[in-house]
Amino acid sequence: MEQLAQHEDVLLNEVRLQEELPIEETKVFAVSLDGANVRLNTPGKKKGRPTERPKDDDSMSRETPGCFKNAMVGVCGLYGEVPQNCGSHCSHITDSNASTPSLTPKRLYGNCLARMPEDYATTFKQKFEVEVNNMLVRLPDGVVKIVLMDGGRNLWGYVNSTELYDDFERLLDFHHAKEHISQGAEGIFGKGTDEGKSWYRKMEALLLEYDDGVDRVIRSLEYYLESYEYKESSRKLIESCLTFLRNNAHLMEYKRFRDNGWPIGSGPVEGACKNIVKQRMCRSGMRWSIPGGQAILTLRSIVKSNRWPLFWAA
């Protein structure tokens, strides 16, 4: 573990120098960041229902080892043209107003980086910026650069305050926006109702098909909120959805992105959180030290980025 930590940067730099990228086909460079909770082997209060078994006073006063903190994951992806015919790299986004399905651009390449929890994620940010810069210096002029993430304020705050991302387009993950609209539908019409499902599909279509789609969704929510009486829990769902859309409207230009053939979903980083972190680090009873967990995350990031042969040979 110590040797891996000491030589990681040198070895990965060797990998980057030898790595072949699909430069000529690349039209879009997208970066995404997210977090996943990991249980650490450090003192923390036990969650859940208190034990009912009798214990002596000493055992009752001890804290249970294990607290949850956020591991960080970042993904760099290269995208090509939108495929003419639907194939393995396509995903449909259909709506009632669209005459043909919308296709996402072909994903040509991706690498990922994962780091164990750390205050302010300082090391993660430094190492991820190295990955981003490595891609930027190799990409030709004209490649569109995008930051594509969910609604985490801390991550957007980092992006907006970092000069490296100044000329990047910014977009909120489309599926994350839909989750909030679904909550609005539940607040207005009730959970699982046909009316709610119909309204939800209409709002989804507005986001995709109109430049002012988010404003139209906001107006619809405001109309229902002002025109009808709701119980407190339902009103809170509607107001929460409205607040989210108002705060993030500037990050929801889905029609413009679709018209340009750019990605609108942060699925790659969501998948990396699951495949690199959750599947390995969050099994029953697992608790991790920072060095031990980082060794696992470093190796899994290398493997999932298809860099293992180059890393092993470095």
Describe this structure as you would to a colleague.
- By secondary structure, this protein is α/β, with parallel strands linked by helices.
- It folds into two domains: about 1-170 and about 265-314, no CATH class; about 175-250, no CATH class.
- Helices cover about 50% and strands about 15% of the residues.
- It contains twelve helices and seven strands.
- It has helices at about 1-20, 55-60, 120-135, 155-160, 175-190, 195-210, 215-225, 230-250, 255-260, 265-280, 290-305, 310-314; strands at about 30-45, 65-80, 90-95, 100-105, 105-115, 145-150, 170.
- The chain has a five-stranded mixed beta sheet. Strands 3-4 form a two-stranded antiparallel sheet.
- Strand 3 and strand 4 (about 100-105) form a beta hairpin.
- Helix 5 runs antiparallel to helix 6, helix 5 (about 175-190) runs antiparallel to helix 8 and helix 6 (about 195-210) packs antiparallel against helix 7.
- Residues about 60-65 and about 85-100 have low confidence and may be disordered.
